[in-house]
Design a protein that fits this description.
Aspartate Aminotransferase, domain 2
Length: about 450
């Protein structure tokens, strides 16, 4: 929504909050990350009308609409079947909010219940909630659930792998860096395989209340499941997995690897990228965490007339009941995004999800094979097995910039520059692939890479 404010409106608002200017209003934001001025300068939005803004954004859309995307890193360009929009765009779903009055919200409650059932089926775990804001905040909630559940309160270590999505790491640090009961320990990754350095991780386990793994990790690498199961056989700490829902069509479920809690960014299930949001936080856990997990839980019961009915249950955990004593301050859920995920998965089914995951994996391996067979030097940063993403090393930032320029001329977004995001990965590029890229798209991209490294 675009809302215009007159100068009088702006002055009234600023006077009400006690500041002299809009700049003062945002003075607490560090200037190095403040992008509003740059955004206005790029789009020339200052004092723009809604019409001017719409026309400018259409021009940008036309420039980017037909680009081939090999960038992922947590938000992916997956095909969305028309049925998702057809169902989710119905007015009764589009306007629905948290169903505090179950007797008039049976439709909303039912699809949330079905969504929870879908998450449990995907993860193999016992219970799910009614969705969270995004994958990063879902992970933060999983950590807080672990902190509240662990019996030994003297344990303070939260072990996070360095190969976790860097956005997740940043949000975790924002939540918990100043918490006296949580000390974040970062476990390094093996410079050869890209997997977590399990030997280093073991040094901290005795004082850990929770350990997090991402599977596949941010580099696209699959962790060693035998070692994961060995670590997870311990009951001395809570095991949390950040998983990729599409990859669940091929890889082992979190429950099969004995994880206690599983979270995910669910954008890949029927939600468009939309410049990074809105997103969808998936959350599931074992039964013993039922009273500690955040957000809404919808259950199925029988009403006075012996008809099936849906209700919000165990509400004493929630902030609208217990407020300062609640297990979380989550006060709403990404209901519409969750509905889209449910429709998407219902359309695919497990067989469709398996086929999709196999297709993505096969095409990614085909791209890697093309590069390996036609480039003499080893450009792959890591040797570990991958699903749909991998890292290549350009050796210098100038070369990455040059390659980006070449791809721009060919309407290709080649990946994510990892410089300044992870140690020892400056000058590296994270390449992702989805079913949206045809074999001809992959061949064209592979040819650009091969010619660049000749």
């Amino acid at each position: 929504m675009y809302i215009t404010h007159s100068d009088i409106d702006k002055k009234t608002i600023l006077d009400a909050v006690g500041v002299n200017s809009i700049a003062d209003l945002f003075s607490d934001i560090p200037r190095q990350i403040f992008i509003a001025d740059k955004f206005n300068q790029i789009l020339n939005l200052k004092s723009s009308s809604l019409l001017e803004l719409s026309n400018e954004l259409k021009k940008i859309e036309n420039k980017t609409k037909f680009k081939t995307l090999f960038a992922g890193g947590g938000i992916y360009n997956h095909y969305i079947p028309p049925i998702v929009d057809f169902v989710a765009n119905r007015s009764e779903f589009y306007t629905a909010y948290t169903p505090y009055q179950p007797e008039i919200s049976q439709g909303t409650l039912q699809y949330i219940y079905e969504y929870q059932s879908m998450i449990c089926a995907l993860t193999g775990l016992d219970i799910s909630n009614a969705s969270l804001y995004d994958g990063a905040t879902a992970l933060c909630e999983a950590v807080w659930t672990a902190r509240n559940t662990i019996s030994d309160k003297t344990k303070k270590y939260l072990i996070i792998p360095e190969n976790l999505n860097y956005r997740f790491k940043n949000v975790l640090k924002t939540y918990y860096s100043d918490n006296p009961n949580i000390e974040i320990i970062f476990a390094d990754y093996n410079q050869t395989t890209g997997q977590t350095d399990y030997k280093q991780l073991e040094n901290y386990l005795n004082n850990a209340f929770a350990v997090v793994f991402q599977y596949p990790n941010y580099f696209g690498i699959l962790e060693d499941t035998d070692i994961l199961q060995k670590i997870n056989n311990s009951n001395d700490f809570i095991k949390i997995m950040a998983f990729y829902p599409i990859a669940a069509g091929l890889l082992k479920k979190p429950a099969e690897l004995n994880f206690d809690i599983a979270i995910a960014e669910g954008q890949c299930f029927g939600n468009p990228m939309n410049f990074g949001g809105p997103l969808l936080g998936m959350f599931a856990a074992k039964k013993q965490f039922t009273r500690k997990i955040p957000g809404r839980i919808v259950s199925k019961t029988i009403d006075a007339n012996n008809n099936t009915a849906f209700v919000l249950t165990l509400q004493t955990r929630e902030q609208h009941i217990r407020r300062e004593n609640a297990v979380s301050n989550i006060c709403s859920n990404e209901s519409l995004c969750a509905l889209r995920a449910l429709v998407y998965f219902s359309y695919l089914g497990f067989d469709g999800l398996k086929y999709l995951a196999q297709l993505i994996y096969s095409r990614t391996e085909y791209l890697k094979k093309c590069l390996a067979e036609n480039i003499k030097e080893n450009i792959f940063k890591f040797s570990g097995d991958t699903f749909n993403e991998f890292v290549i090393d350009f050796k210098s930032q100038d070369k990455i910039n040059e390659f980006f320029n070449i791809c721009e001329e060919n309407n290709i977004v080649p990946g994510i520059n990892l410089t300044n995001k992870y140690k020892n990965l400056d000058n590296c590029l994270l390449i992702s692939n989805t079913e949206q890229n045809s074999v001809s798209d992959i061949n064209k991209f592979a040819e650009l890479i091969i010619n660049f490294f000749k």
